[in-house]
Batch of 2 targets.
Target 1
Amino acid sequence: MRLSKLLAVLAAALALAACGADRSCKNACDKLTACGFGTSGLSCDARCGGRDADCAECVNDNSCAEILVRCGGNGVGVCADWNH
């Protein structure tokens, strides 16, 4: 019984670690384009860092409808430099 609880906790921890792990700016640019938003101000390189990576993670982890509210834009949220 103890082993099954340990495995359940481990599975939950792995699932949480996988959430929000995509920090690719290329994927974020592709998603923004697919959602009908512009990508001006966001680096579209596959590898990016800093605020661009934070913005990419937010975009990649949310639906099109949630991106503007959760990630922001035009000076609001983690995507402050991105103009939609």
Note: The chain has a mean pLDDT of 76.
Target 2
Amino acid sequence: MPDPSYVHAAFSSIAARYVTANHLLSMGADILWRERAIEKIAEWKPQRLLDIATGTGDLALAVQRAFPDTEVMGTDFCRPMLDVAVKRGLRNVLEADAMHLPLPDASFDVATVAFGLRNMADYEQALREFKRILTPGGHLLVLDFSMPSGLMARPYRMYLHHVLPRIAGFITGNSAAYDYLGESIEAFPRDAAFLALLERSGFSMPTQLPLLSGIASIYTAQA
């Protein structure tokens, strides 16, 4: 499991250039993935949405723009990332550890986490905490990297472990943070294993939507 101290230090060091790096390294695909997430969230008509591990606020800002009547809060344990989110226009932020959210039970009807659960120290404990803050019948959306299978698997691993860290190191000045990225993606449960993890964590009706041949996936479940 990831070391929280290392994760905090790594993301603090790249906060200022994190958004640019993400868009360049994914060739803009991350923007399309968030648009698919917004389409799914629209089905739930959220009144109060918590974006966990919001980082620089990409998904929370997209939700804020798409649903102006929804109360959106972004939370993260890394203050430098939150500072960037605020500068970009995210109105409501909370500095907090996702494993122990200082929020009442059943206080949001939708929770989202994009590219963040993979960095948490205990996936199941984190998911149980997300369920705690959701209203009964509320919805969870997890957007994160997977690993493609078939012909895509080998070239993607080459890019992930050898090409991406060099480019990211040039952009952000911290290639080690992106060495960690590849390791965390390989270790993260995916496909059927992640759906089973959602059920073990108390969620029902888990679903998966693979994106770009399985490079990323949107998982949803109901509290």
Note: The mean pLDDT is 85.
